[in-house]
């Protein structure tokens, strides 16, 4: 085995390549005025070029003169642990400290153990206040589908530097704000009272420790993805030179939806004195996470009750407009105090609890805070007595078992690629935080665009469900069903929405929150010029098609005919009727058209120099409508005559309406040029081109070309520029064979290579302003055998939140859509599974640096365990079945591992 030895000095990085203990090559790289992470990136890339065969590395201790020579780094933010983390991630190798290497007699085993740790753990060292800190907190969020706690340490309060928050699924409130001289109403995802705050004060000082005022010597935060445990280790010093080591652990109990716990340990390092510990129940918090929302009304609840008795507190608050009640009960215990010594003080919105005790140097003192959170929107849970938390260890033990059950069903194991493995687990973890099979069946909610992690998009539910639900459909179908019920329970509002806009059927809102009303903002802030402009994204009517698609995907994969008969068929019929009513006939072309919509590409809101917003014959919308009308016929065939009659009476749909849909599906209009390029919408080919090279040279980051153009006084409506996949989204949703059938039924003939042509055409005109764009294009690139392009885009999507590639958006919450989509594409594109057919189909297509991948899926009620390598598929199925591998059928016997070479 080859490994590297890395030794850093004040201005060099010395590399030795060894095999066993034999030196086989060495190289020295120089640097000046070390910057983190810029210099690490440059050095790591040089190492990759010259030492590509290593299986691991050892990083030696950092000399003191490194910090005296390089003034842009400090031991806090650039310690040996942080350098190892950064080098390890770029080199995609496990790296040991010299201490770890010297402590083992088996380097191979040590590297393997380190690699295993890295793929299950998220570590952050040091502290950088502001957006970078906010992003770290998003990625360190813990939760259980009911609530999410951002990854702050207990001493942090609500400031521009850091942002503790407690979010509850489905908790919204609407407030009025004055924007650009107008009164607008916005429904917001509410930051609820903070019970995470704990801090200390040493006798002889008048200061509580704070990261802003105290001297921070060390901070390490860890998230164990396997168990959901958050741990922080901090060494901090007050103005009187008292040094204290503080360890905090936090868990949200995955098995008990209402409970979270904090364990807080204090060790005085250089003194023996009296210490006062303070913990707070804080009802003064407000929404502050998203900078561009900070001028809007931010306080969404009022305190209705505060109670403190010995070591217990209770706060009850009510949202101002939605009238939702939230109650938090706490109990504190510790090994250095009894309940009767706790001193409580209550003010208008705050309870403070203080304990003073005599601490001895190097002794550790621990306290626990158990918090129980309930809300009236979870009606059944609100009305039932909750199981109180007993102790941190008891809660953690319960939660750990629940997490193990989730990972058993959903973990993807990749061999040969440490970082892809790590990122896939990070993404899976955050989906469980956002919606959990253990708790979501108690709730009437769906998954927000930013999880339970932040306040971007005001915590609303979008069409992102089309990317999110497949994760649950193939792993946890009952949870997928619950998420679909969120939409069914708001079908009435969708019908009202359609009627108010002069349509029939059900028109689901682009942004949905509490009750399913349309909650899309009317104005949008452009941060590049500070100006508010009209927001037309409400015209993205294709959200209804996403809901229809997910209903079909759930049914097609689960065979849950009962769901279709009770709920699904009604939703599909109402959605189809909306699209029928939105369609007009042109006798000149002898085709139908759909007008006044926007596609997934949000850069185009209307036609250049046109006073009205909306576009005509968006290809994605029209072709998905054709698909819906086709599938509706299949779905209705599941119902007997009596069931159909009841459904038609309930919805008011007539036989004539269905005949209209049947005619429309054969004659909807699509614009296609002579090269076979499908126009994003009618008139698209008349738009101007953008000089992309010039834009990149001028702005660098051109993801949000719409904002750039508007800040320059131009409009994206004038240009062939897309935020994300629009026309190409069709090929993400449907197999190409199905799209070929749709075009044939519509009477359009395209060249055999039209997918490749369309991919290249639109890829060259897409800025990837949405992180979802990359993963959709990655799937399509692989489909047409553009392997390198596919891998590049896939990796960008995998890293998008972890490296916050959009420059601050992760601070406002993780992107659940892209996290779910990366998992889905890993399974469908690289493992090659297809769940859309009667039998499970597999077309293995592993990336070249992956040896194999192991995972589980549910399909048609059968549980599969699969290991796919470059030469074989190993299958375990819970029932006798037939699967298709490389277009060949194979009969699989239940409960038997079968290996099929290919």
From TrEMBL:
Substrate binds at residues 463-464, 723-724. Keywords: Glycosyltransferase, Hydrolase, Transferase. Residues 131-376 form the Glycoside hydrolase family 65 N-terminal domain. The keyword Glycosyltransferase applies. Pfam families: Glyco_hydro_65m, Glyco_hydro_65N. The active site is at 602 (proton donor). GO terms for molecular function: carbohydrate binding; glycosyltransferase activity; hydrolase activity, hydrolyzing O-glycosyl compounds. Gene3D superfamilies: 1.50.10.10, Glycoside hydrolase, family 65, N-terminal domain, Maltose phosphorylase, domain 3. Residues 425-823 form the Glycoside hydrolase family 65 central catalytic domain. GO terms for biological process: carbohydrate metabolic process. It comes from the Bacteria. Belongs to the glycosyl hydrolase 65 family. This is Glycosyl hydrolase.
């Amino acid at each position: 085995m080859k490994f590297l030895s890395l030794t850093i000095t004040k201005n060099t990085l010395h590399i030795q390549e060894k095999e066993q203990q034999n030196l086989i090559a060495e190289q020295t790289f120089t640097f000046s005025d070390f910057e983190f992470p810029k210099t690490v990136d440059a050095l790591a890339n040089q190492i990759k070029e010259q030492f590509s065969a290593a299986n691991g590395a050892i990083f030696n201790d950092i000399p003191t003169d490194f910090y005296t020579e390089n003034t842009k780094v400090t031991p806090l933010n650039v310690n040996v642990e942080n350098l190892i983390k950064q080098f390890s991630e770029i080199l995609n190798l496990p790296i040991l400290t010299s201490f770890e290497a010297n402590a083992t007699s088996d380097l191979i085993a040590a590297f393997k153990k380190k690699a295993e740790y890295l793929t299950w753990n998220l570590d952050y060292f040091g502290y950088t206040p502001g957006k970078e800190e906010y992003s770290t907190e998003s990625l360190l969020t813990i939760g259980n589908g009911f609530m999410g706690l951002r990854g702050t340490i207990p001493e942090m309060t609500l400031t521009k530097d850091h942002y503790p928050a407690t979010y509850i699924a489905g908790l919204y409130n609407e407030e009025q704000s004055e924007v650009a001289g107008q009164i607008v109403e916005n429904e917001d995802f509410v930051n609820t009272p903070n019970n995470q705050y704990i801090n200390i004060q040493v006798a002889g000082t008048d200061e509580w420790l704070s990261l802003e005022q105290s001297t921070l010597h060390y901070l390490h935060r860890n998230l164990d993805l396997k168990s959901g445990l958050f741990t922080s280790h901090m060494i901090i010093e007050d103005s009187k030179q008292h040094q204290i080591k503080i360890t905090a652990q936090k868990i949200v109990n995955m098995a008990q939806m209402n409970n979270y716990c904090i364990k807080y340990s204090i060790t005085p390092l250089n003194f023996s004195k009296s210490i006062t510990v303070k913990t707070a129940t804080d009802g003064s918090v407000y929404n502050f996470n998203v900078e561009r929302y900070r001028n809007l009304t931010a306080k969404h609840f009022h305190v209705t009750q505060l109670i403190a008795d010995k070591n217990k507190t209770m706060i009850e608050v009510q949202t101002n407009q939605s009238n939702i009640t939230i109650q938090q009960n706490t109990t504190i215990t510790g090994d250095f105090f009894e309940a009767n010594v706790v001193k409580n003080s209550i003010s208008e919105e705050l309870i403070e609890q203080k304990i003073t005790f005599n601490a001895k140097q190097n002794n550790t003192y621990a306290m626990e805070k158990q918090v129980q959170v309930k809300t009236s929107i979870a009606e059944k849970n609100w009305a039932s007595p909750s199981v109180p938390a007993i102790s941190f260890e008891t809660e953690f033990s319960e939660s750990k078992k629940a997490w193990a059950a989730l990972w058993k069903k959903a973990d993807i194991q990749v061999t040969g690629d440490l970082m892809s493995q790590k990122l896939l687990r990070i993404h899976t973890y955050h989906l469980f935080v956002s919606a959990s099979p253990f708790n979501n069946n108690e709730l009437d909610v769906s998954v927000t665009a930013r999880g339970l992690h932040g306040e971007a998009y005001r915590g609303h539910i979008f069409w992102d469900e089309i990317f999110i639900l497949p994760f649950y459909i193939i792993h946890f179908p009952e949870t997928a069903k619950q998420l679909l019920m969120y939409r069914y329970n708001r079908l009435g509002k969708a019908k009202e929405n359609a009627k108010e806009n002069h349509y029939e059927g059900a028109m689901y809102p682009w942004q949905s929150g509490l009750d399913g009303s349309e909650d899309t903002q009317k104005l949008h802030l452009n941060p590049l010029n500070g100006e508010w402009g009209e927001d037309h994204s409400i015209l993205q009517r294709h959200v209804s098609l996403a809901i229809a698609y997910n209903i079909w995907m759930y049914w097609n994969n689960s065979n849950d005919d009962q769901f279709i008969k009770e709920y699904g068929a009604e939703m599909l019929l109402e959605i189809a009727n909306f699209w029928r009513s939105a369609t007009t006939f042109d006798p000149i072309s002898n085709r139908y058209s759909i007008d006044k919509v926007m596609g997934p590409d949000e850069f185009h809101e209307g036609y250049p120099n046109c006073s009205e917003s909306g576009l005509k014959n968006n290809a994605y919308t029209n072709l998905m409508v054709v698909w819906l009308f086709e599938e509706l016929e299949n779905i209705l065939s599941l119902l007997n005559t009596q069931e159909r009659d009841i459904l038609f009476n309930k919805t008011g749909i007539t036989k004539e309406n269905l005949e209209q849909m049947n005619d429309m599906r054969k004659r909807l209009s699509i614009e296609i040029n002579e090269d076979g390029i499908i126009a994003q919408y009618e008139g698209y080919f008349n738009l101007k081109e953008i000089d992309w090279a010039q834009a990149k040279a001028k702005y660098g980051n051109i993801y949000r070309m719409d904002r750039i153009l508007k800040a320059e006084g131009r409009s994206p409506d004038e240009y062939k520029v897309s935020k994300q996949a629009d026309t190409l989204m069709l090929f993400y949703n449907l197999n190409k064979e199905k799209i070929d059938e749709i075009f044939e039924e519509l009477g359009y003939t395209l060249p055999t290579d039209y997918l490749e042509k369309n991919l290249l055409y639109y890829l060259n005109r897409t800025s990837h302003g949405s992180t979802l764009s990359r993963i959709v294009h990655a799937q399509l690139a692989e489909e047409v055998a553009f392997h390198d392009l596919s891998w590049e885009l896939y990796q960008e999507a995998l890293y998008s939140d972890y490296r916050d590639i959009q420059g601050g958006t992760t601070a406002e919450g993780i992107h659940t859509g892209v996290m779910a989509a990366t998992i889905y594409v890993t399974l469908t594109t690289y493992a090659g599974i297809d769940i859309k057919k009667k039998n499970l189909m597999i077309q293995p297509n592993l990336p070249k640096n992956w040896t194999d991948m192991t995972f589980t899926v549910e399909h048609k009620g059968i549980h599969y365990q699969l290991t796919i390598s470059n030469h074989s598929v190993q299958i375990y199925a819970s029932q006798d079945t037939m699967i298709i591998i490389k277009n060949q059928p194979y009969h699989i016997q239940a409960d038997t591992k079968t290996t099929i070479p290919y």
